[in-house]
């Protein structure tokens, strides 16, 4: 019963924190625009909040793996993120704009705590036999957040002014603090008691100082690169995120052409989020329907089909159908990625692998959004087809990384004839 309540607390906390995270970007975008009168200023704040995730994620992951109470460290990161957002909000219009941008960069260092950092703790609260189902629920919190966060930010900004959305985002993150604080501690096996008195030894060095942070980072990256399922899942998901970033950047223009207004492009994103939520809900009921590894190469191909459909016919029915299809490809892909990480990540490196993966995906998403801007301005179908190409590339990368790792493993095992020759060779 306690495990069940812990799982409920985890899911509610994750959903609340991630909703605040999804609100924070659009809220700062609107607040920057309202205070400075420049759309470029709002975009600069949004970019500053996300660009530092690539650095902050791996570093936070190392600290998370070394902590005996990772929940308290996670709660501290959430509090720091909320405080950083508040500092950015207060500084707007009261300090030079470059100070607000710098504060946003510092705040963004803690962003991966709300995504990969939280998910890395799931095996501590879910029973092993329920991990696949709860992983699907965890992925659904991202879909709920992406559906509700931007909409709430826009509604509050319209009703009470641009800063209200940012203030609400801060409140959502603060509400998640108790759930993070009460996450279970790390349970390490007790040392064996010697049968005879031993010679007094030098006191053990604490785990946090036994190796440098750089060594911890290197160990995490080696685990991702050398573990074939992790390598192909990470590389494929990062490439796929480029295409997803391009889709989001294309939605305003697609909304203008299909629905009669650029602002209605947000409705298309809501369709994607709702479809992804429904797909993950189905997957949670039938966790054995598809293996995670199968979903990781099928999902990008479904996304490629959705983007090609949107590029082919940009009328309202086809645009909505394309977004439904995109959600079916995007939602289960995230669930499958989490499942592979939970299955393959070494216990001592779990936090770093999750936060590093989240950081890489955030950076890839930003690259895709930046690439789509000039392409869509020249040709919206061309940008959508390019995004579809990245999704096909993601599936090919998944297959290629798997083939390379298999070939390396086969080369490492000598044939029986070579082994016999080696035994006959004098030492």
Helix and strand element order: HHHHHHHHHHHHHHHHHH
- Would you identify the regions where 5 or more consecutive residues have pLDDT less than 50? 190-210, 415-427
Shape: globular
Q: Please, what is the average pLDDT?
A: 81
Alpha-beta classification: mainly alpha
Please tell me how large the radius of gyration is.
Answer: 23 Å
How far do the termini sit from each other? 62 Å
Number of helices: 18
Strand proportion, as a percent range, falls in under 5%
Most strands sheet: none
The percentage helix is over 70%
Please report the total strand number as a whole number.
Answer: 0
Give an account of the 3D structure:
This protein is mainly alpha-helical and 427 residues long. Helices cover 80% and strands 0% of the residues. It contains 18 helices and no strands. The model is unreliable at 190-210 and 415-427 (pLDDT under 50).
Give the gist of this structure.
With 427 residues, this protein is mainly α. It has 18 helices and no strands.
Summarize this structure as a short list of keywords or feature phrases.
427 residues; mainly alpha
